[in-house]
Amino acid sequence: MKSSITPNQIKQNNRKLIYQYIYQKRKVSQQDIAYDLHLSRPTVATNISTLEQEGLIQKCGQIDTEYVGRKAAAYSIVSDFRISLGVEILKKEIKIIAVDLNGEKIGRTVYEIAYENSETYIQTVCDKIIQFKDTLSVTDEQILGIGFAMQALISPDKKTVLYGKILDCTGLSIHAFAKHLSYPCFFVHDAESAAISEMWISPELTDAFYLSISKHLGAAIICNGKILDGKHGHSSTIEHITMEPDGQMCYCGKKGCMETLCSLESLLTDSETLEDFFEHLHQEEVTYTSRWKRFLTDLARSINTLHLVYDTDFILGGYIAPFLTDKDLDFLHQEVCHMTPFPEANDFIQISKMPKHNIAIGAALPYIQEFLDTINGAVALSS
After folding, report:
1. H-run or E-run covering 295
2. 308: which strand partners?
3. N or C: which end of the chain has fewer CB within 10 A?
4. How far is the C-alpha of 286 from the C-alpha of 264, rounded, in Å?
5. pTM to 2 decimals?
6. Angle CA 348–354–356, to nearest 5
7. Which residues contact 207 (CB under 8 A, 6 or more apart)?
8. Torsions phi, psi of 335, nearest 5?
9. Number of H helices, E strands in the chain
10. Given the DSSP bridges, would you call strands 94-99 and 83-89 parallel, antiparallel or unpaired?
């Protein structure tokens, strides 16, 4: 027996549909909403008024049309009705970013604070977060939460660092930060955070192997539109696959890990920056072209190994992404084709569409997505 739908459920469903439509279109008129959602003009007008009163939407000028007469008022969401913060914890600095409901940056800062496993460090970081929040002129109510991106493996419940050799933070609990902050908090692996950003900017992305090539190598597997976490929290730890048993020592204590071949630490010298390296490379200096070719060859070897396990698209992200070119992709494809036993199409390796600030932004986005899922969750009218 089907349960009847109450008028209140229909009203709530219409409200959510209208908000979602405005969110997706960015700038719309009441006429557009009524026409595309097949709702009456009075229904639309009533819901628009309610959403305005709640502070969720606002008038934003007028809609330009080719027709003569009075122009229709335009509406958009109030993008900073709620915001979220992302914090990237690194060895020598922290990066803090604030994003609005559109996932767009509204503020960013960097503090040079060397990591140490101490209460003093944690208190300092939390003080800097609050200091940054105060510069945004937002209320505590507007802040949905804070995501902390860590160079570490995180427990499935996002509360504990399971393996943190880079920062020496194994066992760190999110409570250490949360007790100083009045907002929800969680941990996220930095490569997973970058992959979240990638999925946000490319909603059509459902399956991919995301490689984060920064100072260290990291990865995330995207499967059916979600990050594959695994049973014990260490899926996608491809950086510790042994590629050369007698190779360089990895920070994990083993030799010849993929990390020692495909991270920026393997490409750059101690005093070198990415900008320095690529400036010399673009001048076609022999030693730099040789180093770059060796790096890309090792990267192709690693991609081939991973592609044999998971036949999907590969996205190259991290600090290196803005420096990669189509010529580099062609080289990688050619190298993989030479290595693989199977026919291989030259279309599965791509450059990240969101290489800038992607880790910090990705740490902030889950709270934004959760809010949008809640407010846009349509009532099932067929139940």
Report:
1. helix 286-309
2. none
3. N
4. 19
5. 0.89
6. 135
7. 222, 223, 224, 312, 313
8. -65, -45
9. 12, 14
10. antiparallel
The residues that bridge with 6 in the sheet, in sequence order, are none
* Strand partners of residue 317: 212
Angstrom distance (rounded) from CA 203 to CA 193? 15
Distance between CA 171 and CA 152 in Å, rounded? 10
The one-letter amino acid code at 47 reads N
Name residue, tokens 């992404």. 321
- Give the CA angle between residues 378, 379, 383 to the nearest 5°: 140
- Structural domains of the chain, with CATH: 7-78 (1.10.10.10), 83-194+359-372 (3.30.420.40), 203-352 (3.30.420.40)
Q: How deeply is 337 buried, as exposed, middle or buried, from its count of CB atoms within 10 A (0-12, 13-18, 19+)? A: middle
Listed in sequence order, the residues at least 6 apart from 150 whose beta carbon sits closer than 8 Å to its beta carbon are 89, 161, 164, 167, 169, 187, 188, 189, 190
pLDDT at 70: 65
Q: Where do the DSSP E strands lie in 135-194?
A: 143-150, 153-154, 161-163, 185-189
* Residue whose C-alpha is closest to residue 219's, from 185, 257, 246, 181: 257
Q: Which residues of the chain have pLDDT under 50?
A: 1, 68, 378-383
